[in-house]
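# step 3/5: fold
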Amino acid sequence: MVRVEQVSEDEWQVLRDIRLRALWQSPQAFGASLARDQRFQEQHWRMRLRSSHWFVARVERDQEPVGLVCMIAEPGSPVDDRHVVSLWVDPDHRSQGIGRALLDRVAGEASDAGATTLSLWVADDNDAARALYEGFGFVATGASQPHPRDAARSELRFECTLMRV
């Protein structure tokens, strides 16, 4: 059983710890670097939690977070779009539905906020992430950009239409 919970500002250490673990274990998946995020102090982590929605996944038998995702209103995007960033699942817990649970929570939160689409960027060589996103209903838009940390790689933009209930 997976629980997905929003992280509050007072839980900034939870975000810091899982974010640093994600950057350490899967550096190629992120535009940010471990060295950069390790320098952030408490005020930065709290600011991140005030300015965007961060969620962690926990497996019922374990209190340690095993997954992470963030939802933002991306600057320059339509007002009814929410952007997914930093989705990550601990390698020991992949292929267990945790990534899907994180996306389900973000989609629900986005829909509750009036969004009609979710969008994201994913590295073109991250086949596992692309499979997760496509299985959820994301489709490639045709837009691409250089990867923020490796210009030899690129990122592809995906969007998903949210179903209104």
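# step 4/5: annotate
The mean pLDDT is 92.
# step 5/5: archive (pending)
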